[in-house]
Amino acid sequence: MISGFYQVVLNKQTRFQVGDNANLADFTYVGNVAHAHLLAVDKLDKTYPYLQFREPLADITLSVGSARIPTSEVRPLGPNKNPSETDQLAAKRFESGEYPESDLRPVLRSKMDAWADQANREDSDTGGEQIAGQAFFITNGEPVYFWDFTRTIWRNLGHVPPPIWTIPSGLGIVIATIAEYVSWFTGKEPGFTKFRVAQATLNRNYDIEKARRLLGYEPLVGLDDGMKRWTDWYKGELEKQNLVQESEKTK
Prior knowledge:
Elements: H1 2-10, E1 16-18, E2 24-25, H2 30-42, E3 47-49, H3 85-96, H4 116-119, E4 128-130, E5 144-145, H5 146-156, E6 165-167, H6 169-186, H7 194-201, H8 209-215, H9 223-250
Parallel strand pairs: 1-6
Antiparallel strand pairs: 2-5, 3-4
């Protein structure tokens, strides 16, 4: 995948953007995928209690960090020159990360929710969802706009794109169709295809609640850190190729 991003740099095509960059995409660091596989092996004979489907999950904050929303019970002092004891207690809760019980609300699920039946069982039901045999989406849980991700990869590779020319998605499909017909006549592989337009313009983010609940999965490597590791590795591979080419020239 990264070689495709780098080829766009070599072709000097980074100024072109197909679509309005309003589509979210999920990407996954390979170490997180391996971690999920190990969790799945450990949970083959386990079940997930039905009543826990009512409990909220924490946000994934590896890349973006956490931001707390002030409430009437938990808030910073701000410009308050004469804070009362209640104000000071609210500020203390805000800084400490403590949540009052009134803020810890259960997850509310409609009948259209995948886990509605499990969450709405009687409180006395001590059963659970069987984990073996389930299928899971595994991502970093940090959906990002596709072209923001792409430009971050280019920047990490040492390239900053020139001013952007935006091509509407419909026009991109037309251009890609023409390119595919031309390649069919010439026998050359097309560099611009309808598949690539779809990849750049469609929403491709997935719900990983199932993996987080049943497997206990949480990404170990955040998206920002994963992109840096990925591009650092690729730059190392490019340097190795350059060394091989130089040595071939001297023979």
